[in-house]
Amino acid sequence: MTSPVPAAPQAPRRMRTLWLIALVTAGPLVISAFLFFVIKPGGKPAYGTLVQPQRPVPDLQLRALDGRRVDLRKYDGYWLMVVAAPAACDKLCQSMLYAMRQFAMASGEDAYRVARIWLVTDDAPVNPGVLAPAAGTMVLRANPDALRRWLPLAAGENLAGPMWLVDPLGHLMLRFPAGFDRLRALDVFKKLLYNTQSWKPRHLVPLVLPAVVPNGSVR
Predict the structure, then answer these.
(1) Rounded Cα gap, residues 118 and 86, in angstroms
(2) Which run of H or of E encompasses 27?
(3) Strand, coil or helix: 163
(4) Which of 165, 171, 177, 214 has the most CB atoms around its CB within 10 Å?
(5) Structural domain boundaries of the chain?
(6) Which whole-number Å values give the CA distances from 217 to 100, 128, 151, 199, 214, in the listed order?
(7) 3-state secondary structure of 214
(8) Distances from the Cα of 207 to the Cαs of 19, 26, 83, 106, 185, in angstroms?
């Protein structure tokens, strides 16, 4: 009489299923990033500096202008464009806010996947003259020391000047230097959006945007 063949262990099969689900979920984004950044000679982006290793968004203890706590880690699914500058927002700061707005407008039907972040590096009143032009930008107060620990800077570079990109999985991945070439940076950004079009988030957390009243103040 033939002995019954014992059933194969189920654990390896379950693990393979879990890995398959993970690959299907994150695969398009990972593969697109690989093709865009690694298959090029030297594994470098067409413009900007790749952050290596990628840095996850930490708890930065951010606050909106009305005092609400805001955690950027909740914004998975968005491409985050991040700049930092004092509340006075000089001409350089204003040009950065304008550049981010132009980037978002150029994103077309993918604009809903783009979030603009201005991290205010002091406690001074925010320049009311920039709030209307920066409409659609999340304005958050941040500790500059915490930002320096998270955001990579070139030698001699200050927080005010560069722009950083955080991918939809919540990793800091790319830095454009102070005084960056807007057209070249926009070209890179549009390619990133295009190469990740197949990765569509099921739900995006609404952004915390400042409400500007007619006299330019914030509520």
Answers:
(1) 10
(2) helix 11-37
(3) strand
(4) 165
(5) 11-195
(6) 22, 6, 30, 38, 7
(7) coil
(8) 32, 23, 16, 19, 24
For 86-150, give the secondary structure using H, E and C.
CCCCCHHHHHHHHHHHHHHHCCHHHHHHEEEEEEECCCCCCCHHHCCCCCCEEEEECCHHHHHHH
| Residue found under tokens 């350089």 | 92
Task: State both tokens at 94.
Answer: 């204003």
Q: How far apart are CA 218 and CA 66, in angstroms?
A: 8
The whole-angstrom distance between residue 111's C-alpha and the CA centroid of its chain comes to 13
Q: Count of CB atoms within 10 A of residue 115's CB?
A: 23
Query: For 155, phi and psi rounded to 5 degrees?
Result: -55, 125
Angle between helix 182-195 and helix 91-105 axes, rounded to 10 deg: 40
Task: Give the position of tokens 């205010």.
Answer: 120
Q: What is the pLDDT of residues 150-175, one digit of tens each?
A: 999 999 899 999 999 999 999 999 99
DSSP 8-state secondary structure symbol assigned to residue 212: B
pLDDT tens-place string over residues 99-115: 999 999 999 888 999 99
The CATH superfamily assigned to 11-195 is: Glutaredoxin (3.40.30.10)
Q: What is the distance between the alpha carbons of residues 117 and 72, in angstroms, rounded to a whole number?
A: 9
The proportion of the chain whose per-residue pLDDT surpasses 70, expressed as a percent, equals: 77
Q: Which one, of 199, 148, 162, 152, lies nearest residue 53 by Cα?
A: 152
